[in-house]
């Protein structure tokens, strides 16, 4: 079996989500369309323009929280329903890693997970090794462009119909995760300074940290600050160049790690 050796000193593992522990298609073909389908109801609840002074006094707690998220968009996009709807749809269609959009998506997805409209199809080898590494005493972390809220929702609603530890076919993996990083609390995934922040937060030396991602630019920036980094190759992920295949360590399953 194809194997890649992991530095024996590794005490912490940082995991990407899309294309690493979960298929990119779930995000693009399930989560994004679900968000877009709920967008008219979300935006249609409020009077425009959206301003602090214009907050309705008959909102539920969740509706008020949503309103305050929407207030974080620039005023020109909050001027009308049409302007905000168009702006958000454009961000989604171009897969822009915009922090306010990510926060809004996480809030909408929370409802979908709660209603069991959504279940996250994590790769079986990812589920197996997350549990195994935790039992071995390794600290596990998530670093995704999706908000921390969205990360916790996804990890807390894993589709695991055949898993004996699952509750009604849903497995909660959050108990194995020590902390969560996103573009708000540490920064962009393609900037080396973000990985320096992660090192400081985790409290281990770079040599004691392993980062698993499907994205070459992310791995490059993590390696720049000394973090062990390995590219995860999955069906549906972006094709790697010949140079990438030669210059980076690759795995095709978490079971390839020894």
Q: What's the CATH architecture of the largest domain? A: 3-Layer(aba) Sandwich
Number of helical segments? 9
Number of strands: 8
Radius of gyration: 19 Å
Biggest sheet: strand arrangement: 5-2-1-6-7-8
Structure, explained:
The structure is a single chain. This protein is α/β, with parallel strands linked by helices. The chain has two domains: 12-22 and 120-256, Rossmann fold; 29-114, Transcription Termination Factor Rho, Rna-binding Domain, Chain A, Domain 1. The protein is built from nine helices and eight strands. The strands form two sheets. The protein has a six-stranded parallel β-sheet, sandwiched between helices. β7, α9 (242-247) and β8 form a beta-alpha-beta unit. α1 (24-43) runs antiparallel to α3, α1 crosses α4 and α4 runs parallel beside α6. The longest helix is centred in the N-terminal third of the chain and has 20 residues, at 24-43. The N and C termini lie close together (11 Å). Keywords: Amino-acid biosynthesis, Hydrolase, Methionine biosynthesis.
In short:
This protein is α/β, with parallel strands linked by helices.
Provide key terms for this protein.
258 residues; alpha/beta; Transcription Termination Factor Rho, Rna-binding Domain, Chain A, Domain 1; 2 domains; two-stranded antiparallel ribbon; 9 helices; 8 strands; 12% strand; globular
Task: Summarize the helices and strands and which ones pair or pack.
Layout: E1 12-15, H1 24-43, H2 61-70, H3 81-93, H4 99-114, H5 124-135, E2 139-143, H6 148-156, E3 158-159, E4 170-171, E5 177-181, H7 192-202, E6 209-213, H8 216-224, E7 228-232, H9 242-247, E8 250-251
Parallel strand pairs: 1-2, 1-6, 2-5, 6-7, 7-8
Antiparallel strand pairs: 3-4
Helix pairs in contact: 1-3, 1-4, 4-6, 7-8
């Amino acid at each position: 079996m194809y194997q890649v050796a992991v530095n024996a000193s590794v005490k912490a593992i940082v995991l990407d989500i899309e294309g690493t522990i979960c298929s990119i298609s779930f995000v693009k073909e399930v989560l994004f369309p679900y968000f877009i389908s709920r967008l008219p109801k979300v935006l249609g609840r409020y009077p425009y323009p959206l301003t602090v002074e214009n907050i309705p006094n008959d909102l539920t707690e969740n509706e008020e929280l949503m309103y305050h998220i929407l207030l974080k968009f620039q005023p020109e996009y909050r001027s009308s329903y049409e302007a905000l709807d168009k702006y958000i749809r454009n961000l989604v269609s171009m897969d822009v890693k915009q922090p306010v959009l990510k926060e809004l998506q996480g809030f909408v997805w929370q409802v979908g997970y709660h209603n069991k409209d959504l279940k996250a199809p994590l790769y079986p080898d990812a589920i197996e090794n997350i549990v195994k590494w935790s039992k071995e005493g390794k600290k596990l972390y998530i670093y995704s462009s999706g908000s921390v809220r969205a990360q916790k929702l996804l990890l807390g609603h894993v589709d695991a119909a055949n898993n004996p530890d699952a509750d009604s076919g849903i497995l909660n993996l959050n108990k194995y995760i020590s902390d969560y990083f996103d573009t708000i609390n540490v920064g962009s995934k393609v900037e080396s300074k973000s990985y320096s922040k992660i090192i400081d937060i985790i409290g281990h030396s770079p040599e004691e940290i392993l980062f698993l991602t499907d994205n070459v630019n992310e791995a490059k920036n993590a390696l720049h600050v000394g973090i062990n980094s390995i590219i995860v190759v999955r069906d549906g992920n972006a094709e790697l160049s010949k140079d990438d295949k030669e210059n980076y360590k690759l795995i095709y399953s978490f079971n390839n790690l020894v």
